[in-house]
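Exercise (ungraded).
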Amino acid sequence: MTRYLARRLLQTIPILLIITVIQFMLIRASPGGPLKAYLENPMTTVEHIKQMERQLGLDQPLPIQYLTWMLGNDWTLVDEDGDGVAETKGTTRGMLRGDFGYSYFTHLPALETILGRLPATVELSLAATLISYLIGIPLGVYAGLHRGGRIDNAVRFFTSTLNSVPHWWLGLIFIILIANLTLATGVQILPIGGRQTLGLEGFNPLDRLWHLILPAFLMGTGGWITFMRFMRSETLEVLGQDYVRTARAKGLSARVVTFRHILRNALLPVVTISGGLFVSLINGAAIYELVFSWPGMGRLVLEATLKKDFPISIGALAIFATIGVLGRLLADIAYGWVDPRIRYD
Amino acid sequence: MYKLLCLLSVTVVLVFIVACAAPVTPEPTKAPTATTVAVAPPATTAPGPTVAPKPTEVPKPTETKAPPKGGTVRRYLTGNAISMNPMMTSDTTSTGLQDWIWAHLVKRDPVTLDIVGVLYEDKPTFSADGKTMTWKLRPGLKWSDGQPLTSADVEFTWKTMMDPKTKLRQRATFEGAFTDVKALDPLTVQYTLKDVGFCPAADQSDLIGVLPKHIYEKLDINVNPENTKPTVVNGPWLFKSWAADDQFTAGPPNKNYVLGEPNIETVSYRNVKDAVVALQLFKTQEIDIVSPAALDWEEVKKLPFASTYEYYTPGASWTYIGFNTRNPWLADKKVRQAISTAIDVDGMIKNIRLGLAKRQYSLISPTNWAYTDDVPKFPYDPTKAKQLLKDLGFTPGPDGILQKDGKPWPKMRIFYSAGTSEREKIATIAQENLKAVGIPLEVVAEESAAYSERRGVTRDMELFIHGWSPGVEPYGTGEVFQSFSTRNHSGIKNLEFDKLWDQASYTPGCKQADRKVFYVKAAQILADEQPYIWIFATPELVAVNKRLTVNPMTPLGVLYDPSKWYINP
């Protein structure tokens, strides 16, 4: 297992390097740039834009910009005042030394900005994952154990209908419904945006939980539907196995048969997709963060990409890629832990 | 379990029905209806200019009782602020937040619209040769930490702005107006004008406000903690907290604020996706002020707890379709006039804005002091448009597309910034209108930065849709039409217009009435040239929760001085 782990970790390095090159080139290949919006000011000339481009190093060839991003520029001179002469020592250390540069707009360190928003995204994604487990697994097992029953049919119908509409769109509908309900009754059942009540100082766990319910539920909808279906089909398959029949024949209670024999074996595929689920929730958080005004990393990346704030967008995408690669590695390891038949060399 | 599920389903359906029903207005013996105050007179076809609303005196309180102190005002943002340092930003989202904690040097008087001092006293004086403008700071000004605010702070702010190492976005604006700003004595600030006799100079003397020298002189202006958490300010409120893309809070009131300590205790902003979500927050009374879209205005007016205001400011924003006159098919002004005649602008106002807009015919907003209604107009008349084009030698080909000298009209593109639904509708209507007269048009939505580059640099376009927020001073608007301007997206060249616009900016004595003579002539020439089809000017639509008293209505609206607002007892 140790050798397997070391091998997989070593493999992540070239994978991440390739991902960052592709991301960097794709973002830079798109038309426009971070400074083109300043052309809206009638007093700004093309020369002003060129000066700012020199100050930010955007006039350099793309490979040089990529290398600067990776290795930094504190070992060379830069054109700090944009006059066309590189006469000042650079200050960035490069991504490999943990320095993702500075935002073109806020001038704040990119890594600090990204990591400052990461907890909100992780919080939302973890809550959505938890909801996926808490609803999807029991529902799937129950539906599998009562195949063809009213509950099974109702759940399958309901989840098919729910899966036919974008879940983020449901979020907008819920926001409008809650607002109208509040107007009609004077009672607000759930907040319609934000991570905490406006103006609230400090951390209030109940207030935070109240704000988390709706976005996490909707974000986890795809997850619990997937888990429900997997668990149902795995439960049906496991139910037909000899060892389950033997366990019943031995006189074990239904509870013991369900939890010790059926559930444990039916859970194997769920473990496999769990790592991917959390990663896909993190990556897909942007749209839910947008709808529910959740101040997470997804919104940050979206805005930075649209504004062409390269240090933020490329840095955040590199972090997303790292989370994705490591998430899948963890899922593989967990699979081997859950299923003793699987061994890694 | 099955019965439980059935009960749950029925409950959910009932909830949907209740939520979708019209809101029930509470029973009241004092049921105040939503108040709508429309200030500007409606656009008419009568000759003569549409005047801005008559300046109203700010009503004197009938009681001597001071307004109540305390409470929180809750608002929203749809964009993300960049910095709390006004030198580092030029976007309206950031300046909107900065205005709560930073005071301006000058402002517009809400009634007369003249430039008057805030930190500066009264009005400036000009040297006899017109080369310098001098302002005096009010005596006794202090920063929030008690340190005196002097002309040295203003001079420090200017020098920092002009330092090439400062990553200042708006340097060009101020470099175009002044060559130097210096402190003559602790209360006196002298601006050296780049161009002698430049009338809008007073308008631009605000710079970006003023920063505390004793705090910022020790810091790298581009990167320092004060840019996100300013500890010393001079505005109505102190800075409290700012979580980017989440919430902003200012408070408590600044006891040293020049115009007097505000009544409200704190102000909080929340970031939201768009005006639709903001409206829902207003309905649940989680925020106190909202500017809804035109489509939602009728619904908002019916809310029992809302006061509503609809007004046009002197700097009302306008939307237009621009022509790239460099294109040989659009180079002739008579062709552009014919195309203008083919576009149903009144239909756009009715169907897109639901009537909530004023027809615009020239570059100056209908409620601006320099406005004239006496400009060439091209009302919608597709039959006349076809005749005009026929007179110019364009005849329909076998496929209905116009042609001239055997050459068919090439397919043209109309660009707009993606994500702006209103402009998408304008483009679609324009496409249909021009198809009816035989001109093929393709609608192209483009990402914002790429669209800016296309309009400002490559100019690879035929028609384009955009908007403009002119401000009370018309000077900046005309610059984009002057022949030498690098921001002349349409490529229009009219030397008479250039001359008249400069004369309006350098009128001896700078009296509005004298300047207006030149602005009127310039507007008439440009309207005849039709580099743009000016479509409409849009009003401010503002709804305020009745628990909050805002400013009395003036030409600047009702939100111009938050330090005077208060929460009703």
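Further reading is listed at the end of the chapter. For now, observe: Chain B has a mean pLDDT of 87. The two ends of chain B are 51 Å apart (CA to CA).
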